[in-house]
Amino acid sequence: MTAVPVDKVAPADKAVPAQHPTVDERREDGRQARRDTPLAMLAELADSDRDPISLLESQAEARVPELVPIRYGRMSASRFSFFRGAALVMCDDLSRNRNSDMNTQLCGDAHLSNFGVYATPERKLAFDINDFDETYPGPFEWDVKRLAASLAIAGKDNGYSGKERRKITVGCAAEYRETMIRQAELGNLAVWYSHIEPEDGLEELSIQIKKRMLERARSTLDKARRRDSVQAASKFTEIVDGRRRFISDPPLIVPVEELYDGRDLEDVEEVLHGRIRSYRSTLQWDRRVLLQSFEMMHIARKVVGVGSVGTRAWMILMKGRDADDPLILQVKQALPSVLSGYVNGPIFRNEGERVVNGQRLMQASSDIFLGWERGPGPDELEHDFYIRQLRDGKGSAVIEGMKPEGMEAYGRLCARVLAYAHARSGDRIAIAEYLGEGTEFDLAISEFAAAYTKRNARDHAALMTAIDTGRVTAQTGI
What we know:
It holds the Pfam family DUF2252. The protein is α+β, with helices and mostly antiparallel strands.
């Protein structure tokens, strides 16, 4: 199969009549999918003549030029770092293989570092997927393959043996399959509310990992509980002339007045206030009222992530009751999903809305300030954005140095919440029937992950060569 852009279907907001097949009909759909694409075929990784550097360069065209070298620098740090930033490269590879044709809402970038804890509106910590920049409908196994491959690649970087990596990836796929089978037996509301609370996850981990590793996991949760706007303000802001403002730490943090140097800041701030009002209209009514009680104080550009570096990302400092009651929002540019050029799917009038709707569909509970907006940047071009709190109990596992048994347990937790997310929007009964009770799916996904570990290593080497030869410029250590 040659990877080429596909024709799109109707806009995302166009109503489509709901279909309600019986349970038996849905099971037959799963059996038919298995006849069309046997599970063993999911292990295949087709040969490809694609150039990974060209694909990465194609993404750079829509990014802030002076930040792109930071992206290459961060991706060059390790094979796993490269994998984190190469969602487009893997999507191109996945499109060249047979797929189940059983679609669900995908994360699109379901590597293990994109799972973690965050605070729910009820002020409890939840464990779930926490990055949706690439969310889009597609074959369910694409997310599973990316998760399993990330475990194998991270394990390779950590020095695990091939046998240890295989055990981890088989366990990941088995957990996904077994969870989907359980979800297929539940009612619709029970599926919708399924989630993992971190403390429950720790109870399971305690059976499988050593005490020292369990203490590290508890420390991660304690740290996440302290990560909020007050903590973010203490790190990213300072008091200048009696007013709290973002620090200047270019290129990672650049206050708005430095970016708009020479322009009338009053005019800029007026435009920004208008865009905040536009964003507010995308929130639930009660949350609009809450947001309106905060006053916008300052804005700065911030470099975030690995694969996201170069996209336009901002921090907005807002004041509530007084200077000691801050709210910091993150405004992040939303580009078309890497999946959208390879699978049939809806057209979105605003890519920020795509991210928000995908997140709300896949997460058990989402940020109360999650919304979207469109407006011009300093380049005076229109861009789509989504907005959420910068930090609200967010935390993720430290992958480097993780022991094999810890990564196996963590990979299983990630696979479970991924199955929860897929079951909400996909046909869980048909997918469960496709997966079956045996281990064929588990072994196929593990075999694919092992093959992709080798390909990713070659792609990382290609990036290092491109840096050495001057084809691309990388800034390391930032």
